[in-house]
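Much of our argument rests on the idea that a fold can be written as discrete symbols. This step matters because it turns folding into a mapping between discrete strings. The record that follows shows the chain in one-letter code together with its fold in token form.
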Amino acid sequence: MENIRNFVIIAHIDSGKSTLADRLLEITGTVDARRMKPQYLDKLELERERGITIKMAPVRMLYKHPAQINADDTQINADTKFLYKELTYKIRGAAFDVWNKIGPGFRESVYQKSLEIELKSRGVDFIAQPHLKIQYDDKPVGDYYPDLLINKEVLIELKALPFIGDTEKKQAWSYLRGSDYKISLLINFAPKGVEIERIVYDSARDRRTSASDLRKSEQVEYILNLIDTPGHSDFSYEVSRALTAVEGAVLLIDGAKGIQAQTLSNLRAARKAGLTIIGAVNKIDLDLPHINKVIKATADLLGVGEEEIFRISAKTGEGVKELLGGVVKQTPPPKKIDDTGGQEPRALIFDSLYDDHKGILAFVRVFPGVSDNSINSGSEVVLLATGAKFKIKEVGYFSPELKATPAIGPDEMGYVATGLKEPALVHIGDTIAIAGSKAEQLHGYKEPAPVVFIAFYPDGDTKFEDLQRGLERLRLTDAALSFEPDANEALGRGLKVGFLGQLHFEITASRLEREFNLEFLTSFPSIAYRVRDGGKDFIVKEPHEFPMKPERVWQPMIKMEILAPQAYLSQVVNLKTIFDIEVSEIKNIGDNLLIIARMPLSELIRDFDDKLKSVSAGFASFSYELDGEAEAEVEKLEILVAEEVVPALTRIVAKKDMEREARTSVERLKELLPKQQFSQAVQARAMGRIVARETIAAMKKALGDFGKNGGDRTRKMKLWKKQQRGKKRLKETGRVSLSPEVFREILKK
């Protein structure tokens, strides 16, 4: 236990958490340099596309302090780490800056000249295209002109190819072997980004002696269990689960933006969980003029000295090695939990995943027992909450890919292949215990309360069962997801799904489309109200179930923390003219202002985030949490077509917005509904009165040329009156149905 460190990286969105995780994977040698790619732990396509972390990502790393080699390292790998100097970080940073400034599509000579400019600005010594002799048995056999020689230590070969192939790597290694140098960087400015391959060859060093020297210098090998967490407030439940599985947290601050709203929210959660918090300011490679102010603000926030804040660049790796050493020194080892757990080990499920072959994979943190400490493959176990029993098919660690092992050690994180196929049997927060033991349940997680409800209806070739199965599979990886059956007259059976916010909904919808190839329609977003009617209080989630004239209504409220530069204070505060915001306090946090306010939850789903970013030029950020309820001035807005209510279009609207919403709805429907043989009234009704109305004229039937060319006009009038009587009968007995196509259009944002 003494050599285990469990920790998380927490930060506001887009602060560089995943990039920092990449550097940690590199330094510890967990991922081979050839397989390394940006945002390595972000496995979902959506995470890479949006550049944000959606799912927590655990990984197990081995780290020898101060030597950084794994037990099974080869000599070449050990030499690679031994030669991994700060100089290479500076070169990496310069290469990335060149790419960011000029992008793809240029010749190698253009990239070389640009790289030379960047290296000069960083004070790095180099020689362009030096003349080197290729040696064979200590005899010159040829000439070699690398693109750059950095600090008389590192050779640079520049390429502008679609990708680096084995031919380029072997060629670089061959040149290096024939020279007096030990390391070469193969830098490729590819169409999709910068690729950097490190080539190492040290002919002067005896391999066995070198490995022996490194082993002599090594100290304790540490097991580092890291969880990379999301930064958006909609995924705070992912963060909260991760915090209960660790003892330490790296609080990462964006050096360019400083402390942001979710920074404060995550810090409070980490402190509440009793974690050791290590502060780090990222993006120091940008040479920001106000970086010292950000460092001071971070130190003040954590109540430590400025010298205790780590200065790092997750992109170039500068300072990351020191931060990793800080994690080892400051994060305490796991402590034995004080309960009546019994003799046998237990495991807390903090996440899960579905595998077609192994069934449900439970991601667990193991808590040791008295007589036994590990969870072993092949053991008979039971899930204490659901009572499901199974024989463990496989256990393993996150390396970061799943790597099978005979057992998961005490206080470590890993996965358990249950073999179970039914998602309802495995719950996040449940305890895995040895079958037949008297183990008690571990303290799990408080289930999050959904705040936004949206109905999903199958569309196209998708069936209801397909949609339900897709949501069940997603719920294994997203414990905050909840759903229940729903039905719509036009769209058929569906599911009412609860979300933690608008982004949570958008991500879930995208995952259903991409991962399960589902087609569906979604309803208007709604929230849950507490309503008093007839002297009784009850919760209303469905707008069409809202009483026509309730006695009283209460709506959920949120407490917001908006962090914005002082220059944008008036613009942010003026948002209260659009949204129902009550500002309670404004205080200074460094160079920013922290605006504490209260607002109805319903206002949040009216594009509050977009409006805030717009008025603050993107500099303001906010976080929120549920904050009780308050009496609401709202009404039910019903839409009637041909004097019949369309339940799927019913919404709960604030009284102040009623007329605008009503007018917009009927005008939109008038555009979308096809004409009938009788006129159709499209109406919006609230509190029993018609608020807005549009009429769709009836289709006209041509009556010939009566009256135009000398015909009898009375005959035309007779036919016209007969047609009018028929339309009147149709209007009295006719019924208008809204097609799925009309719903699809009107439900578009």
Remarks:
- The chain has a mean pLDDT of 81.
- The radius of gyration is 32 Å.
- The first strand starts at residue 4 and ends at 10.
